[in-house]
Amino acid sequence: MIFVFLLVLNSGVFFSSQEVVEEIIAVVNDDVITRSEYEGNLRAIFQMLQSQLEGEELTKQYNLMKENLLDTMIRNMLLLQEAREKGFDVTEQVNLYIENLKKENNIETDAQLRQELRKQGMDFEAWRQELEENFLKQALIFNEVDRYIVTDDSEIVSYYKLHPEEFTEPEEYRLRVIYLSSEGKNEEELQSKKEEISRRISEGEEMADLATQYSEGPEKESQGDLGSFKKGELEKNLEEAVEKLNPGEIHPWLEARNGWYLLKLEEKKESRIRTFDEVKQEIEKKIFSERKRIKIDEYIDKLLNSNYIKIINKPSGS
Fold this sequence. Notes:
The protein has helices at residues 35-50, 55-85, 91-104, 110-119, 124-144, 153-162, 187-202, 207-214, 236-243, 276-306; strands at 24-28, 31-34, 168-169, 172-181, 225-230, 250-256, 259-269, 272-273, 309-311. β1 (24-28) and β2 form a beta hairpin. It is an alpha+beta fold. Among the domains are: 86-144, no CATH class; 171-270, Chitinase A, domain 3 (Roll), CATH 3.10.50.40. The two termini are 16 Å apart. α2 crosses α5.
């Protein structure tokens, strides 16, 4: 959710070459949403998405968020107005958050924090105001929504029984490997090295020691230890090979990814369904979150229907 700064501005026209009055695009009770606020949020949205997405997916997500932006800004403004009307004071929470942030980042003074924020293109006072507004909305949601949501054990048990697939852990394999790259080697050279490694293993030498000597991938530094993989995470042909092994067994040389693998199954954990006690809190949080989302929508719908809202000049694409 995008939280915006609120500016109370009067509508009007140019009165002089030095005075420009903002275009108002929406009125929410005694507050307004201006064109510059809206466009500022659009820029922030694009920058955020651009750091995560590209191409068609970037365009798709941007258009979707743009379509809903004005509605989101109106909803945020209503929540903020309601929180202030109810007299919530979040000064202590804001101060505590800032102090913890300073400690976590080894910042000793507010002056240093201001400097760090400036480096990121942020104004301290505007940033603090946004923090305060976020905490105000959180306080309102807790007071009007969260504390009325109740989940009982029977619901949690029922969910656990009806959704076993959510709590099923797939098989997990811990692997050791010797990898030989095929790049820059002829077939005879590769075959000779594979046979040499296989012979030394058959004579009782440890695969871990041989991996350190022969392996040509990053696993060389860890004696060939590839770590653990859940079913479905390995390449198909590698997984099919591993599935045929018992712990301690080695699969013959297997070609994949521009090279050859000698695989050893070090450990195998069978698929299992996590116990109820293991997942009880997880289920409770899930039920609570789903119920909270519905209740927040219902609460905001009440605010939308009981407050004065007027769209004066709806931006294109919204």
